[in-house]
Amino acid sequence: MPEGLKDKVAIVGVGCTRFGENNSQSYEDMVVEAGLAAFADAGIAPDRIEAAWFGAYSPNNGRGKASVSLADSLRLYGIPITRVENFCATGTDAFRNASMAVASGMYDVVLVLGAEKLKDRPLRGLAREGPHPYQQEGLTAPGIFGLAATRYFHSFGLSRDAGKEKLAQVAVKNHYNGARNPKAHFQMEVTPEQVLKAPMVCDPLGLFDCCPTTDGAAAAVICRADMARKFRPDPVYLKGIGLRVFTGRPWNDSSFDYLGFPSTRAAADEAYRMAGVQNPAREIDLAEVHDCFTITEILNYEDLGFCRQGEGAAFISEGRSSLAGDMPVNTSGGLKSFGHPIGASGIRMIYEVVTQLRGQAGDRQIKNARQGLVHNLGGPGSVACVAVLGN
Question: Is 185 an active-site residue?
């Protein structure tokens, strides 16, 4: 397989709003804050941008529906701007498309920005999933991932109580990290007891097993790798990226066992081949993964090759994914602490990995971080994007 995008694209600027109930900010305010922060970080003026990709999943009164939402907010007029929407992989797919355009030689310097204002949206969950008489209404994300948790407990010999304790350890870890991140929605630690006694959302997932609904925006300036040091002395390079799409109705696929997601495994394989990663557990120094629910993070450990199938519960219990572990996961606090404004999440993860690789993460900084991973999983596990970034 050809090397693809390896070391052809560099990230030279990143920006991120605080995520949360941003009632004092409009959609445009968040776009401007994230975009101008990325420009300042790269040391460029907006007129240096030659093209832009805009990640937005859920239009809010027309905002985010088309590329003009980005053009009007940042006054980026007269350049090509593409809106990208691809379930929860929207932000990472926008970054992927921008990277391909730069690597092709079509543009030198471009902007990737994702934004979402979900706290203003009346609709929640997946209201309708196809013309099946039993799936017309009521299908929810907690319902899908609750099935995955129950199946995992059954398949790997965990009682319900023991399984919930493993899930609680994910929540405790990610809230610990989020409490050290000034941009997180929830900057608070939680105890295992709080997680286990929280109100039930969809058995066995309680309130603290689910990421919150949130507003936020994040941005990145990327350029040709050979010109990156003109902007800053510590660029971060794209080493590999993969996107894979499988069925949007996995419950109709008799081979789907709810013990992991083929889209994640296939996207990771592509990213690893491009990056030359043969043993991710040893070669990846930290990872930002899609913890929409605590069970999802455990499944991600396995799908991304950090451990073997069935070992994810032990992986969290042994502290391997903690800040002090050998494979820190969600050093930012994850979706669990940040929430999930869909178009912004993947780019916010890129922001965190870039911050770590530069050594600028403060109390949550990982020692000697040289290569990091970003992962998003979209819909009912149907689409995934994985990126490997490095110095």
Answer: no
State the catalytic residue, choosing from 175, 185, 290, 340. 340
Q: Hunting for tokens 């993860």 — which residue is that?
A: 349
Domain boundaries, the chain: 9-121+212-390
Rounded Cα distance, 377 and 204, in Å:
20
- Is residue 110 a contact partner of residue 11, using CB atoms and an 8 Å limit? no
Strands (E), 88-212: 109-117, 200-202, 205-206
| pTM score | 0.96
The third-level CATH classification (topology) of the domain covering 9-121+212-390 is Peroxisomal Thiolase; Chain A, domain 1 (3.40.47)
Q: pLDDT tens digits, residue range 74-126?
A: 999 999 999 999 999 999 999 999 999 999 999 999 999 999 999 886 554 44
Query: Which tokens is 335 given?
Result: 């979706």
Residues in Cβ contact with 21 at an 8 Å cutoff, skipping those fewer than 6 apart: 119, 185, 214, 215
Quick check: is 175 catalytic? no
Query: Cα–Cα distances in Å, from 373 out to 266, 275, 357?
Result: 15, 11, 11
Q: How far apart are CA 53 and CA 115, in angstroms?
A: 11
Q: Looking at 16, 88, 202, 211, which residue is catalytic?
A: 88
Distance between CA atoms of residues 229 and 183, nearest Å: 27
362, 226 contact by CB (below 8 A):
no
Crossing angle for the helix pair 294-303 and 262-275, nearest 10 degrees?
50
87: left (phi over 0), alpha (psi -120 to 50) or beta: left
Structural contact between residues 277 and 240, judged by C-beta atoms closer than 8 angstroms: yes
